[in-house]
Write a structure and sequence with these properties.
This protein is of the alpha+beta class. The protein contains seven helices and four strands, in the order E-E-E-H-H-E-H-H-H-H-H. Helix 5 crosses helix 6.
């Protein structure tokens, strides 16, 4: 069974999905089913049950949005994938609050060749555990102006901008 809850956050509802004590889904939506259908088939096979609270997972998210920027570090996550993708997502969890990297830097941190920036971008696009696996901390190397300088983010550039500002104390 996959347990799901939805938290109210300063940037909208955040659905959280838990299985066997690990966070398997997290995303800015009021409907946990939107995440459930995107899960790895082995996880998607489990029924989804909405609950009021996910215990420590819920507490850590509340603490994060209240200003404890390292609160999410203690949450166990499970995102099945290829070994390369798992290395990229593990490297992504090592990017600290207030820090940003490019896709090429993320690939290098994962021990992959710098030409693996495209794979890093794909891993971020497929990340289903936001903001615990902080793909919002990856910026395009090209930069840009306005919201374009933040690059893509599944939940919108405005949310990415808010998360980065929250983590840098602005």
């Amino acid at each position: 069974m996959i347990n799901a809850t939805v938290l109210d956050t300063p940037i909208g509802p955040l659905a959280l999905l838990e299985h066997d004590g690990a966070l398997v889904g997290g995303g800015f939506t009021a409907d946990p089913r939107e995440l459930h259908v995107r899960l790895h088939p082995a996880l998607r096979a489990h029924d989804l049950t909405e609950v009021d609270d996910l215990g420590d997972i819920t507490k850590a998210h509340i603490a994060y949005f209240d200003g404890d920027l390292t609160a999410l570090d203690t949450i166990a996550v499970h995102q099945p994938g290829t070994p390369r993708r798992e290395r990229l997502l593990a490297a992504l969890r090592q990017v600290r609050p207030g820090e940003t990297v490019t896709y090429a830097e993320l690939a290098a941190r994962a021990g992959l060749e710098r030409t693996a920036a495209r794979a890093a971008g794909q891993a971020c696009a497929q990340n289903l555990v936001a903001p615990v696996v902080p793909c919002h901390r990856v910026l395009p190397a090209a930069g840009g102006t306005g919201l374009k300088r933040y690059g893509g983010y599944y939940y919108g550039a405005e949310r990415k901008q808010w998360l980065l500002a929250h983590e840098s104390g602005h």
